[in-house]
Amino acid sequence: MQYFVARRKFQQARKPYDVRDVIEQYSQGHLNMMVRIKELQRRLDHSLGKPALFLPEKGVDKGYYTVGARLIRLEDKVMQMDQKLDDILNALQTQFDTWLPTWTSAPATPTTRHLQSSLDSPPLTRKM
Question: Measuring CA to CA, how many Å separate 61 from each of 76, 84, 87?
Answer without folding.
Answer: 11, 21, 25
